[in-house]
C-alpha cells in the first residue's frame, strides 16, 4: 500500500502544481481581452501562450484524475458487480487497452518532441513565435506520469483480486452529490456511529 500511496502522492502533486496554470491562463486571456477590446491593441503572444497553457493543464492533469478515480467511466453495469469481478475487468482493460495506448503515447510523443527540438521549431501563428518543443515535451511527460499511475491502478486491481475489496484511495476534494454505490457505505457508517440524518 505504501508503494501505491507514493505513486498517488506523486500524481496528486503533479496535478496540483500544474493546476496553477489555470490562474496564469485566466490572466493571459483577461489581459488579451482588455488590450484588444478596450485599448484596441491586441498582443501578439496571447494566442500561443493560451493554447500552450491550456494544453499543458489538460495533459498534466491526467495522472491526477486517474489517481482520484475522476476519469469518466462507463460503469453503468459493472459498478453492481462484486469487487473481485470489477478488479478482474479493470485489470484486463488496463492490459489490453490502457498500457498499449500509453506506451504508444510515450514512444511517439518522445519522437514528436525530439524532432521539434532538433529543428528548433517555433510557433507559426505569430511572427517570431515562441519555441514549440517545450510544449511538445508535455506529451511524453504526461504519458509517463499516466503510465506510472497505471502501475498503482493495476496494483489496486491485484490487491482487490487477492483480498476481495478495493484498497483505499487518497482523500481529496469530494463531490457534493453522493454516488449510488457510496450511499450504502455512508448509511452503514452512520448506523455504526449512531449518527442519523433527518
Structure description:
By secondary structure, this protein is mainly α. Helices cover 70% and strands 0% of the residues. It has seven helices and no strands. The mean pLDDT is 87.
Task: List its traits.
198 residues, mainly alpha, elongated
C-alpha Rg, in Å?
22 Å
**Helical/strand content category:** mainly alpha
Beta-strand proportion: under 5%
Q: Give helix % range.
A: 55-70%
pLDDT < 50 stretches: none
Mean pLDDT: 87
Shape: elongated
The run of helices and strands is: HHHHHHH
Through-space gap between termini = 37 Å
Tally of alpha and pi helices: 7
Oligomeric composition of the shown chains: single chain
Largest sheet descriptor: none
Q: How many strands in all?
A: 0
Secondary-structure blueprint of this entry?
Layout: H1 2-19, H2 21-38, H3 46-60, H4 62-67, H5 83-118, H6 133-163, H7 180-193
Helix pairs in contact: 1-6, 2-3, 3-6, 5-6
Give a short summary of the structure.
The protein is mostly helical. The chain is built from 7 helices and no strands.
Amino acid at each position: 500500500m505504501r508503494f501505491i500511496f507514493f505513486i498517488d502522492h506523486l500524481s496528486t502533486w503533479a496535478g496540483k502544481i500544474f493546476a496553477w496554470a489555470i490562474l496564469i491562463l485566466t490572466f493571459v486571456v483577461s489581459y488579451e481581452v482588455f488590450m484588444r477590446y478596450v485599448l484596441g491593441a491586441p498582443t501578439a503572444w496571447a494566442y500561443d501562450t493560451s493554447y500552450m497553457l491550456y494544453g499543458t493543464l489538460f495533459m498534466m492533469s491526467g495522472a491526477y484524475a486517474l489517481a482520484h478515480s475522476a476519469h469518466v467511466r462507463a460503469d453503468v453495469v459493472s459498478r453492481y458487480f462484486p469487487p473481485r469481478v470489477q478488479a478482474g475487468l479493470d485489470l484486463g482493460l488496463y492490459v489490453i487497452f490502457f498500457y498499449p495506448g500509453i506506451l504508444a503515447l510515450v514512444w511517439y510523443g518522445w519522437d514528436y518532441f525530439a524532432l521539434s527540438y532538433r529543428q528548433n521549431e517555433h510557433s507559426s501563428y505569430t511572427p517570431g513565435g515562441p519555441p514549440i518543443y517545450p510544449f511538445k515535451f508535455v506529451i511524453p511527460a504526461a504519458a509517463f506520469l499516466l503510465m506510472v499511475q497505471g502501475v498503482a491502478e493495476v496494483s489496486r486491481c491485484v490487491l482487490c483480486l487477492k483480498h476481495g475489496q478495493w484498497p483505499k484511495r487518497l482523500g481529496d476534494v469530494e463531490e457534493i452529490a453522493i454516488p449510488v454505490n457510496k450511499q450504502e457505505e455512508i448509511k452503514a457508517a452512520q448506523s455504526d456511529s449512531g449518527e442519523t440524518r433527518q
